[in-house]
Amino acid sequence: MTAPPAGTAPAVAVTGIGLVTAAGIGAEATWQGVCAGASTAARDPRLAGLPVDISCTVPGFSPREHVGRRSSLTHDRFIQLSLTAAREAVAASGLDPATWDGARVGVVVGCGLGGVATWEAQHRRMLEQGPGAVSALLIPMLVPNMVAGHLAMDLGATGPNLVTATACASGATAIGTAMQLLREGSCDVVLAGGGEAGVSPLMVTGFAQMGALSTARLDRPATASRPFDAGRDGFVIGEGSGMLVLEREADARARGARVRARVAGYGASADAHHMTAPDPEGGGVIRALRTALAAADLLPGEIDHVNAHGTSTPLNDAAEARAVRKVLGQDADVTSAKGVLGHTLGAAGAIEAALTVLTLEHGTVPPTANLERIDPAVELDVVSGAPRRREVRAAVSNSFGFGGQNAVLVLTAA
Amino acid sequence: MSAMYDRLVGLLVDRFEVDRAEIGADTTFEELDMDSLFLVELLLVIQSEFGVQIEDDAASPGDTIGRVAEILERHAAPTASS
């Protein structure tokens, strides 16, 4: 199997980004928070009394204020966060949903879990009050695909519409899929991203029971998420959404849009190794990295920056570091936003792709929060302490999901 | 206006966060941005909170609040007299 000849596929531009994260509501607030390098993890009253009771939660999000009364009552939080990020991204792109040809606008959103907090609350109602107490809105608030459906309704986008579910790679898979839709000409604009609000008692306990979450620093939550640090012991769950407006670059330039960056390559693969543990040899990751580089027509030495998956779990960070070193060497400046934002699961790949766009624009690689003593097994140049200024022409954003699903994006400067 | 109308308005304000100023007897549910599924949810809440047995297709988004209050009153009447 060979890749299509590089250079023949139309370039895909990022013309708008929107972010809603634990560092703040809006791309600028998130960027400032990530560059400041202070973790947002804190004790979460929703998790009171549970073995793991910390999370990275979007501060000051008021559904009524941010998405309106109707959405505040009929949408789960993962949809509300996504709507907020999507509206920001579209506004930033300069496109106007009132006048665009909606049939040429697609929506591809990554989501790993869906409306799990609604599910849990309604299940409790059924057990305590009987089936008659269950909401008629349970199903549309629960199923993950509704996020793309609601964005279509909100923005009048009637082109291809789907949700990708590759666990913690979902957001990156969505952007890669959107790039392919644009390259094949299925639509002219794609709103691509990810949204997740999985901080619920059952989900957090489930992740805790499988040993995925940090438990060693529950008394000091802001130090718990520490990607690539020798003392890391698991991830901190987060919530949020990242959205990108993608167009073919020629179309974007023709309408005078500001091209923020390019999505130049996408590589996807499966480990076929273990249901949750990464392949220690990184075979799937290595293949995804090489596929993405080939699609972008770039050599390993041309990658200046890696926005790592970097979850802060012992297994992920070691396996990822090994694979990155093997394919890209040690020259790229590496960071993980999860030290600041926690792990937002299906949204993470999209949030991190948006942050990679900002790194390309600003020439700034944010630091990895809480990286004090790098794991000797991580033979990479991981940025810590303070943001690092450098010209970044090409960058990789890694995302890997439970199930062994890998999605690697290559983004380049406009 | 009937007591049932007042009760329905109270429910819309308290549970569905509708501004009281938006509501009149001639206001339709559509005008309050409540679609068919949202209305099913409203009727389920009415069943459990008012103790009124009513089919979930007894009202549609084009109905006015005054009209639905009348429907509820009719359904509530036999219970009240029994």
UniProtKB/TrEMBL annotation, chain A:
Q: Where is the signal peptide?
A: none
- SMART domains cross-referenced by the UniProt entry: PKS_KS
Ranges where the Ketosynthase family 3 (KS3) domain occurs: 9-413
Q: Which keywords does this Swiss-Prot/TrEMBL entry list?
A: Acyltransferase, Transferase
Q: Which PANTHER family match?
A: BETA KETOACYL-ACYL CARRIER PROTEIN SYNTHASE, POLYKETIDE SYNTHASE-RELATED
Q: What is stated as this protein's family in its record?
A: Belongs to the thiolase-like superfamily. Beta-ketoacyl-ACP synthases family.
Q: What is this protein called?
A: Beta-ketoacyl-[acyl-carrier-protein] synthase family protein
UniProtKB/TrEMBL annotation, chain B:
Query: What is a single Pfam family found in this protein's UniProt entry?
Result: PP-binding
Q: Which PROSITE patterns match?
A: CARRIER (PS50075)
Boundaries of each Carrier domain copy?
2-76
Q: Which InterPro entries match?
A: ACP-like_sf, PP-bd_ACP
The name of this protein is Acyl carrier protein
Taxonomic lineage: Bacteria, Bacillati, Actinomycetota, Actinomycetes, Kitasatosporales
